[in-house]
Design a protein that fits this description.
The structure is a homodimer. Chain A has 22 helices and three strands. The radius of gyration of chain A is 23 Å and the shape is globular. In chain A, strands 1-3-2 form a three-stranded mixed β-sheet, sandwiched between helices. By secondary structure, chain A is mostly helical. In chain A, a hairpin with a 2-residue loop joins strand 2 and strand 3.
């Protein structure tokens, strides 16, 4: 590959910026997993200083100059396809950022912080009116931000694009509606069936055993401990420095040993993606998957499609019972029924894989009402409750358990929720593609060959990082447009069997 | 306090530099405690970049200008005494650093790295000749460095000063000789006595129990978990960001539950010092104790004077047995004898508190031979073995267990070893001072009031950080010059009783 002087200087400039960003990432990781309470000020001062320096460098005249020069035909044509992607992507982001007036940007950050504080208070006090004016402001400012970034594009489409490039509400409407139509009658049948007795699971679980199980499961599904480690936190997440250092956190408690297992498998799915991005992309704009739907399709594939399949557990359940002896009187069949119990509950984050879809659809439909039909903020709690009643036959007794439950809208993350369900929809499509190449997933799992699936995902999806857009990935992997049919088929077959429908 | 414009700018400049340094500190902590193996390059690139930026700022023209202006009479007189200390200290370090030619500095860093690698190989292969040329170079360059930093001062005194300001070889000679003369006959008597049967301690210990014991002990002696946390590592150490975030690491293994206990108490002693430096000194040159003898006096006071006293354990031994059930058939008396077994062994880091002194004296005397009498490097292994034979009646069968055992000399840390013993000597002096104020230490410990001692140390020593030089601290606390008499008295009384001499 041809390397010009300007390209070398550009690479050096990126590397220096990466070093600052690397340190910021570590500060964030440490704040969430290790930092003592009183260490907060020192860490947040350092984080604020480093992020500001990083932002200055990313939006500097110098950066603009690099991108301008490297985008000129002769220089650009000399780049390989990865670097062409990187330069194009950075130029796009640079231009978008440059269109945001500095004063507006500052005001937005302040509004986000104030809104976050108000949301916490409103949720704690179960008083939507505390949050309402902030929500209204965040809606208005986020729409304005979208207009700066993507002038001329429909605002809600611009927001959807921000989290999953290439997606628009027409596509979401099509797949979400077909999924909803299929799921609602299935859910009604499930809810009419006899619920599973879960009394045997109400035990006190040993936390160091939970940690041993976490390590075992991560290793089993293909997480590399040479390229990653674990930490403890309140809300589990995955974080990556580069493909060589990808970390997952988990939350352990004595009341529940199942949740940390599925958190481990879920975050493990995110982490396996990042650990397997091609090394040559490390430290570049292509080196980490920035498409949330695509990312979520990996975590949810491991968590649900693989992790809630009885065959996943067949080769390892006795090992789990050995590591976590509280399971010794629980049969594999009981365990399997428990991890697939379907309930119409209030809270998205603790929902089963079937009702989870409807929790997301509620949020998506409300976001559309906000940005397309400009429904007043004051009407949103009632709208939320109406949709919950309609789809899940349950009415939140309080707004804290209703519209106030998630933090996403408080910081302006509109258009984010739909990616969670999009991931699940992609998952259905992967099943078909994988079985074409590897044969029955049940059989692969039963034979303890889950790493064959991991290898397949590495090869087909992970190694490209961000350099292939989600639409291209789905087309290449599944050979078709995004469709909810496969996941619907999966749900119907699985739950008809489990609930004897 | 008067604040001039230049002072405000200076403070802001320091704060920015601190933020970079804060991130470097975290990178180091993470490398030693969490980082996955393949994460090394990313972390070390970031660390190299940030440390270089920090160094540039600390030695910049701008910094020189700040220090020059703040040292001018009018500005200086307007500062409070802490800031006078800080400015004076920073000016001294700035001037010292400025006298080192940039080329020499770079060459020294390279030589240190090469020497470290050679030392590791030499130790692994038990071949001193691999290390010899590097050791020779480090001796020469370290002497040159001392001459740049402290022109006109005797080289070895300059090195001693670097680790414990105000100390010189005349003082070390005086106290080490008097200690040696008293210890050698005591050790001979101990070695002639019946050794303790330690077979009951050879067990397999549960590691999560060891961790529970660590947390319990740290809390018991006064380590604050609001201002600190723990990590796991190969070689235990303490690290501080500021007084609000001080971390200790430990090493756990199934073969030994005693070592991690005493590592916890030792590092806890270092950490309690740093957690209790006055908050107003955070982020300044006075905000962390930089005197290694004084620092070691705290860790060793907790570890040995308190932690190896039977009364320390009386109120908590049953709790220890509960947390670590492997101790249930070991009586407190047996435990106490085990943790005070004296043996003439080869390795400093695993030596008991009596022979430890002689291990340090061997190193101190050899350092003097090197820098005063210019003994050739080739003669050092034999000199080492001769002194080990003379003081400890044991001859290292290999150089790996002899002169090659410690890494300190490989990176030019000459003058460092004596501070370990100096800390112990200070400890003897503290006993007298504490008993004058709080009464019998045995009684305070037996009544579970160890935190009274911690509070006393906070008040008398910790809160000053570096703003009081070791000589001033000892004078203020003990009201006398440094002397080995008190620690010798302690050793004689304690071991005469334990070994029925």
């Amino acid at each position: 590959m041809y390397m010009s002087k300007i390209f070398d200087e550009f690479k050096e400039y990126i590397e220096e910026t990466n070093n600052l960003d690397h340190a910021s990432t570590l500060l964030y990781w440490d704040m969430e997993t290790s930092m003592p309470a009183e260490g907060f000020k020192g860490h947040s001062d350092a984080l604020a200083y480093l992020s500001t320096e990083t932002f200055k460098r990313s939006t500097s005249e110098k950066m603009g100059d690099f991108l301008e020069k490297l985008s000129a035909k002769e220089e650009f044509d000399a780049l390989d396809s990865d670097w062409q992607y990187i330069v194009r992507e950075m130029k796009k982001n640079y231009d978008e950022d440059k269109r945001i007036p500095a004063d507006f940007y500052k005001e937005y950050i302040v509004a986000q912080n104030e809104s976050g504080v108000a949301w916490q208070e409103a949720k704690k006090k179960n008083d939507f009116s505390i949050f309402a004016p902030h929500l209204e402001k965040m809606i208005k400012m986020t729409a304005q931000m979208a207009e700066y970034k993507k002038p001329g594009m429909d605002v809600y489409d611009a927001l959807l694009n921000q989290y999953e490039e290439g997606m628009d509400s027409a596509t979401y409407d099509r797949v979400f509606n077909s999924l909803k139509e299929g799921l609602l009658p299935l859910l009604n049948k499930i809810l009419a069936a006899k619920p599973f007795d879960d009394s045997k699971f109400k035990q006190k679980y040993d936390i160091s055993s939970e940690k041993a199980v976490e390590k075992f499961l991560l290793d089993y599904i293909g997480f590399s401990f040479d390229k990653g480690c674990t930490g403890e936190t309140e809300h589990p997440f995955t974080l990556n420095f580069n493909s060589k250092d990808v970390r997952v956190s988990n939350h352990f408690g004595e009341d529940d040993a199942i949740d940390p297992m599925f958190s481990a498998i879920h975050e493990g799915g995110h982490a396996i993606f990042e650990q397997n991005v091609a090394e040559k992309l490390d430290g570049t704009a292509g080196g980490s998957c920035e498409y949330l739907g695509l990312h979520e399709s990996q975590s949810r594939f491991y968590e649900n499609i693989l992790g809630r399949n009885i065959n996943f557990w067949k080769p390892i359940y006795s090992k789990i019972q050995e590591l976590q002896p509280e399971f010794k009187d629980i049969t594999l069949e009981e365990f399997y029924r428990y991890i697939n119990s379907v309930r119409n509950s209030l809270i998205r984050t603790s929902a089963d894989e079937v009702t989870y879809c409807l929790h997301v659809i509620v949020r998506y439909e409300i976001e559309k009402e906000i940005f397309r039909n400009h429904v007043p903020v004051s009407e949103l709690p009632a709208l939320w409750n109406k949709k919950m009643e309609e789809y899940l036959h349950i009415t939140p007794p309080t707004d804290s358990e209703g519209i106030l439950q998630d933090m996403h809208w408080s910081d302006g993350s509109f258009g984010y929720f739909p990616t969670y369900l999009l991931g699940t929809i992609y998952d259905g499509m992967y099943i078909e593609a994988i079985e074409k190449d590897l044969g029955s997933i049940d059989k692969v799992l039963e034979e303890g060959r889950i790493k064959d699936i991991t290898k397949w995902l590495n090869e087909k999806i992970h190694r490209f990082g961000s350099t292939r857009k989600p639409g291209e990935v789905i087309q290449a992997v599944c050979g078709r447009e995004v469709s909810a049919e496969p996941i619907l088929k999966y749900f119907k077959e699985k739950y008809t069997q489990i609930y004897n429908l």
